[in-house]
Amino acid sequence: MSKNNLSLGGVSPTSNAPNSMSALQTLLADDIKVKVAGIDVDGVLRGKYMSKEKFLSAAGSDGFNFCSVIFGWDMHDTVYPKELLISNRANGYRDLIASIDLATYRRIPWENNVPFFLVSFLDPDTKEPICADPRGVLRQISAKALAKGWSCMAGCEYEYFQFKETPESLSNKNFTNLQPLTSGMHGYSLLRTQLNTEYFNNIFDESLKFQVPLEGHHTETGPGVYETALAYTDVLRMADNAILFKFLAKSIGMKHGVVPSFMAKPWGNLPGCSGHIHVSLRDASGKSLFAVSDAELKDGRANAQYNDTKFLSQEGEWFLAGILDGLPDVMPMLVPTINGYKRLVGGEAFWAPNAVTYGYDSRAASVRIISPPSVPPAATRMEIRVPGADMNPYFALSAIFALGLRGIEKKLSLPGPPVSQLTLEDKKAGKVQMLPISLEAATERMMRAGSVAREEAVFGNDFVEHFGGTRQHEVKLWNEAVTNWEVERYLELA
Fold first, then answer.
1. Into how many domains does the chain fold?
2. What distance in Å separates the CA atoms of residue 250 and residue 247, rounded to the nearest whole number?
3. Which of 12, 199, 238, 420 could form a disulfide with 154 if both were Cys (CB 3.0 to 4.6 A apart)?
4. Which ranges carry the GS catalytic domain (predicted)?
């Protein structure tokens, strides 16, 4: 079998994942079809059913052909007008190779337990990952850490609104006057979950069956809002689980007449939906690379730049500095939509940071340091609070680890004091670097000459040109749109 199919690349396989053709044939002995899917630039699953015979043939070779147009159109299948690197009119949207990742094997419990596998996309000429394939990008970043003997670990948390609607009713209502699943602001409520108890519990229970383990599942503040924390694991497995959790929640919702929305800011006057990411590195022994030594545990690291980082290892501080140094240059990878930037209002009202800030256990900062004394050394990690629930988890995680590893490589220093030492006057005086406030500004910054994202050791020009081009398309559509706000404001009085 092709090495592309069997290599796990440090990924934690799902339980019972096959490691040979005979094991695969045994797993599928009673099946007649298999479902496969890959991920496009917007984080949308694109896939199909395959006959078992066709699937086994593809699994026993380099893979199967898959139309490259999925990297040449947006989430609504509108073809990008710009000739992008991966898929364009010039080559007639030629096929890519979809390489089946056997480590992702699971069954879809709400679809009669049909077998399911994720794929990665390879260039048909070189057999190398294409530059814009989300799984391929993250796998390459993870491999850089593995080359140093480190494992990238991560966890994702999603906040998301629920509506008593269907895809048809959303369209019929023109996406206005939608009915929330529950009313009022009820974070961590035990009563509100009783109103839709079967749906609420189905999400948790089906996630376990789908091998997307959860750590927590509760109501969040806002009408019909839930928050779900996915179990901490290897970074590629985490990204897979994150993308599949959205698929699961939307699928379960359909069965209950509910539409869960991972849109970052559905309502202007309510908190938005975050996609917080927790990250750490582990060495070959499984110890957190960010943890201080036993000798430093009482008083902290003597050479720490600031008190907030004294319980981070030197590598942890460099990693943090790397994130902060490059954060403004990779914002489209963390916040990829027009709407996502409306969530980043700053302040403590909505805890959605909009500046290059960090702090020990601070939910007002862009990077929250989670370390002793609030957690044991083994749990030392960082929470990146910039992404919204609309993020593509592969790109968001790739950006975080690429910047962090760059920080360690360059031994970068922190750019300034923690958020606890900053004042409103500091922000007004320009002592705090602000993040881009729109997708247009963020994309311009990412694509400019000299961007950290363009560094070959980070993402390189090919990725930036392709991904940046897709974001320019998104901006163009927004700039051409006429919104209800404009009509209401100008139609009569202008």
1. 2
2. 5
3. 238
4. 134-494
> What residues pair up with 46 in beta bridges, in sequence order?
38
| Beta-ladder partners of 226 | 160, 219
Please state, in angstroms and rounded to a whole number, the distance separating the CA atoms of residues 131 and 146.
Answer: 20
Interval 433-461: pLDDT, tens = 999 999 999 999 999 999 999 999 999 99
> Among 190, 177, 180, which residue's Cα sits nearest to residue 160?
180
Q: What are phi and psi of 119, to 5 degrees?
A: -125, 160
Domain that includes residue 25, residue range:
3-130
User: Which pLDDT belongs to residue 90?
Assistant: 60
Whether the Cβ atoms of residue 265 and residue 222 lie closer than 8 Å to each other: no
Inter-residue long-range contacts of 86-91, CB under 8 Å, 24+ positions, other chains counted:
86/130, 86/131, 86/132, 86/466
In DSSP terms, which residues pair with 388 in a beta bridge? Answer: 274
Residues in the chain: 494
81 prior amide bond cis, ω within 30: no
Per-residue pLDDT tens over the stretch 277-313: 999 999 999 999 999 999 999 999 999 999 999 999 9
DSSP letter (8 states) at residue 355: B
Query: What pLDDT shows up at residue 5?
Result: 37
Q: Are residues 183 and 35 in the same domain?
A: no
Kindly report the CA angle at 401 between 399 and 404, in degrees rounded to 5?
Answer: 105
> In Å, how far are 22, 89, 349, 430 from 424, measured between CA atoms?
64, 51, 15, 10
CATH number, domain with residue 87: 3.10.20.70
pTM, two decimal places = 0.95
Question: Is there a domain that residue 210 lies in?
Answer: yes
List, as one string, the DSSP characters of 237-305: HHHHHHHHHHHHHHHHHHHTT-EEE--S-S-TTS---B--EEEEEE-TTS-BTTBPPGGGTTT--TT-S
User: Residue 381 pairs with which residues in a beta bridge?
Assistant: 370
Stronger pLDDT, 92 or 349, i.e. the higher one: 92
Tokens 């199919």 belong to residue: 5
d(CA 473, CA 479): 10
C-alpha distances out from residue 385 to 158, 280, 346, 360, 460, Å: 11, 15, 11, 13, 25
Cα dihedral sign for 63, 233, 220, 256? positive
Chain-centroid distance of CA 228 in Å reads 14
Across residues 238-256, what is the average pLDDT? Answer: 98
